[in-house]
Amino acid sequence: MAGGFLSLLVVSSTPVAELLLVAAAGACLATARCGGVLTPSACADINRVVYAVFTPALMLASLAGAVTLRDVAAWWFMPVNIGVAFLAGGALGWVAVLVLRPPQQLRGLVVASCSAANFGNLLLVVIPAVCEEDGNPFGLAKTVCTGRGLSYASFSMVLGGAYIWTHTHGVMKRSGESAAGGKSLWEKMKQGMCQMTKELTSPPTTGAVIGLVIGTVPWLRSIFVGSSAPLRAVQDSLKLLGNGTIPCLMLILGGNLTKDEQYVCLQDVVSLDMHDRAGVRKTEVPPAVVAAIICVRYVILPLVGVAIIRAARDMGFLPPDPLYQYTLMMHFEHRNHASAV
């Protein structure tokens, strides 16, 4: 039994170690001692390429090649699971606000930070890394596991983006506007619709939607996917572009974590601008609030996720696919979404 646990520990920890090594390389490249290769401008340029080219290509190729209409119907619990994760996190954040009573302009941020998670990039990174290990815990061949896992991650990213820009963004805007005096109902609705439209038409979401359409429409799938498809070169080219997503993401992550202030990589300009408008950046966050958010996101929510996934499995709501259940569990165990923090 001890040997089996040790083997499972090695399989699960090796992909994380590999990703941390790539992130460490990014952190080193962002420091002056390594020549400052990842300067703020270089990091911003790489981030734009990842956002506009690599990630959409990866999501389109993954969904088009591995998803059918039957699969989408079988994944009906995924949007429910993400909704439950947001609901549970929001409720716990609301309790934290009632107990700790942070400043008014921070209350929406606390609720949003407890409820919103990154359903896209980390899944795109972690799942392929685990699948590439020999003896992965899902009992699937490496290529099958990676393709199916990327499909789950891409679908999660589309659903998570919809929740982020309907629920989370609304919570933060209402909190900031109530502290600043508020706007008219029409202005709030118009601004919210603009933000939602912008998110739903972003390159990653567009790539995922196109991939879903190609994968679920048989005659389109026969044109792009398969060894005899007339336009299979397009699918292969998208896969080639998508392969650049994970290493670039980890390099940017490492650059963002460096302590060399001269070469810090700034990744999410939109969220910083949103925080400026809400007054969040001008207010010091109490340590107790930070500790509460960490406790909710990394201790309580994962336990809630375990209970929900086990109950759904026992009631027969989930397909008998360990990778699918693992993806659902990851919805409760992510770091906060960049738009919230």
Mean pLDDT: 78
Helix content bin: over 70%
CATH class: Mainly Alpha
Q: Whole-Å distance between the termini?
A: 41 Å
Shape: globular
What's the assembly state of these chains?
A: single chain
> How many E-type strands?
0
> How many alpha or pi helices?
15
The total tally of domains equals 1
Q: Spans of 5+ residues with little confidence (pLDDT < 50)?
A: 260-281, 337-341
Q: Give the DSSP E fraction (strand runs of 2 or more residues).
A: under 5%
Order of helices and strands: HHHHHHHHHHHHHHH
Secondary structure class reads mainly alpha
Q: Find the CATH topology.
A: Na+/H+ antiporter like fold
CATH architecture type:
Up-down Bundle
Biggest β-sheet description: none
Radius of gyration: 21 Å
Structural overview:
This protein is mainly alpha-helical and 341 residues long. It has 15 helices and no strands. The protein has helices spanning 2-29, 40-66, 69-74, 77-100, 104-115, 121-131, 142-180, 185-200, 203-216, 218-224, 232-242, 245-257, 269-278, 287-314, 322-330. The chain is globular.
